[in-house]
Amino acid sequence: MIAVRYYSRSGNTKLVADAIAAAVGTQAVSVDASNAALAETADVLFIGGALYAYGLDGKLKSYLESLDASKVKKAVVFSTSWLSRHALDLIKKELSAKSISVESETFYVKNRASEAQLQEAAAFAKKFA
Ligand SMILES: Cc1cc2nc3c(=O)[nH]c(=O)nc-3n(C[C@H](O)[C@H](O)[C@H](O)COP(=O)(O)O)c2cc1C
């Protein structure tokens, strides 16, 4: 099973999450949705968020902290931001703290993805599906 989870305040990260999900044949679910918890083991969990004032949104942080590590075989991280890729490292750090295996390759878009970047997101996702 492949899962896609994200948190997005203004839609930029959601756009990428939706492109990834469509490419791997699933639905992207916001971490604050009622069905955000993993119902079964994910072979791959795509997880994304943005950077807000040098940090992750609290909802994404809580979700990462609440993840059941035994239900994630591997995590793949994506992010959007205005400038900094730091959210990628922050998400990776939370996952590693839970001993979840994290793919070293990540996907990043500056602000709102173009059509071409959404296609890149899809191609990126398919590599891990
Ligand atoms: C309150 C706030 C703080 C932000 N802080 C940063 C920042 O420190 N570094 C950065 O590169 N981008 C920063 N951004 C830009 C967002 O990371 C960027 O717009 C991102 O794509 C938003 O994703 P979302 O639409 O999924 O919420 C900030 C945006 C907001 C609204």
State the main characteristics.
129 residues; alpha/beta; five-stranded parallel sheet; 4 helices; binds flavin mononucleotide
Structure description:
The protein is 37% helix and 20% strand. The chain is of the alpha/beta class and 129 residues long. The longest helix is centred in the C-terminal third of the chain and has 14 residues, at 115-128. The protein is globular, with a radius of gyration of 13 Å. It binds flavin mononucleotide (FMN).
Unreliable runs, pLDDT <50, ≥5 residues?
A: none
Number of strands: 5
CATH fold name = Rossmann fold
Q: Strand portion, in percent?
A: 15-25%
Listed once per kind, the bound small molecules are: flavin mononucleotide
Q: What is the CATH top level name? A: Alpha Beta
The run of helices and strands is EHEEHEHEH
Overall mean pLDDT = 98
Task: Compute the number of structural domains.
Answer: 1
Distance between the termini: 9 Å
How many whole angstroms does the radius of gyration measure? Answer: 13 Å
Task: Provide the structure class.
Answer: alpha/beta
Biggest sheet strand order reads: 2-1-3-4-5
Could you give a short description of this structure?
The chain is α/β, with parallel strands linked by helices.
Topology readout:
Blueprint: E1 2-6, H1 12-24, E2 28-30, E3 44-50, H2 58-66, E4 75-81, H3 86-97, E5 107-110, H4 115-128
Parallel strand pairs: 1-2, 1-3, 3-4, 4-5
Helix pairs in contact: 1-4
